[in-house]
Amino acid sequence: MRFLQGVFSGYINNATAMMAGETPHNRSGWVMAAMTTAGVAGNLVGPLLGGFLSGIFGYRIPFFITGGLMFCVFLSTWLLTIEHFTPIKKEAMKPMKEIMHNLENPPLIIVMFLTTMIVTSSTMSIDPIISLYVRQLMGGHGNIALVAGIVAATPGLGTLIAASKVGHTMDQIGPEKVLRIGIMTAFILFIPMTFTHSPWALAFWRFILGLANAALMPATQTVLTLDVPTEAFGRIFSYNQSFQAAGAVLGSILGSFISGISSYQMVFIITGLTLLINFILVMLVKPKKQIAK
């Protein structure tokens, strides 16, 4: 059932593509940042809501409740959203290879796909070891579950705080500059996280990392919005979501594998190095479009 749920989990990329197509280019940065804010808020509230409901009703009833919430999402999307969409006949629909060939800057799009994968991987590589790393830092004493939960949640809080401001900044100076600054900042922040000896210091640096993360996925999606023709939005953002899913899988495996053969600190080192490689890739591709002023 979880596999089938994943098969039909196309809502996010279609919602992103729809907003990209309906939004003027000079507002794309803010809209993509708002989308990220909504996603982060859901990721923070969802586990809390699930834990609260399961504590009251047991494990089965929350499935019905969350299913009902998803039905409300279906109704609101169907009844309350307006899309200015002109269907493309199957015969006129260009194959993906031709679309990529006709893009002004195909390497930029490919690098954005890789950026989505690496950024997602950098997040997921840390998640599996957070509780274990916090337990090690606390010497196995104290309320480890609570502290680990706080440490895990701090990046999301940072992203919530910074997303709106970052979105407006992208509309002013362009998403490419914001993306480069965000990736380099994230890389630098992994250095103190590697050498920290306190869970509260780790929580602080992860909170700052969340501020930087607010510049990553929205900037990537904004670059795709500005450099891809409207008729290809659906397929491009679907590919982007596939790279995001691949990043989640690779990140989890990477974090678990490295911590198993080396140490928790080494996970932070390797993750930081992947972000440095990502920064180099982004610097190598030169954008040909800028946000309209």
UniProtKB/TrEMBL annotation:
Membrane-crossing residue ranges in chain numbering: 28-49, 61-82, 103-124, 144-166, 178-197, 203-224, 236-258, 264-285
Lineage, highest ranks first: Bacteria, Bacillati, Bacillota, Bacilli, Lactobacillales
Domain of life: Bacteria
Keyword Cell division: no
Entry-linked PANTHER family: MULTIDRUG RESISTANCE PROTEIN MDTG (PTHR43414:SF6)
A Pfam family hit: MFS_1
Membrane topology annotation: Multi-pass membrane protein
Start and end residues of each Major facilitator superfamily (MFS) profile domain: 1-290
InterPro entries referenced in this protein's UniProt entry, alphabetically: MFS, MFS_dom, MFS_trans_sf
PROSITE patterns found in the cross-reference section: MFS (PS50850)
Main localisation: membrane
Annotated keywords: Cell membrane, Membrane, Transmembrane, Transmembrane helix, Transport
Subcellular location: Cell membrane
Keyword Zinc set for record: no
SUPFAM superfamilies for this protein: MFS general substrate transporter (SSF103473)
Name of the featured protein: Major facilitator superfamily (MFS) profile domain-containing protein
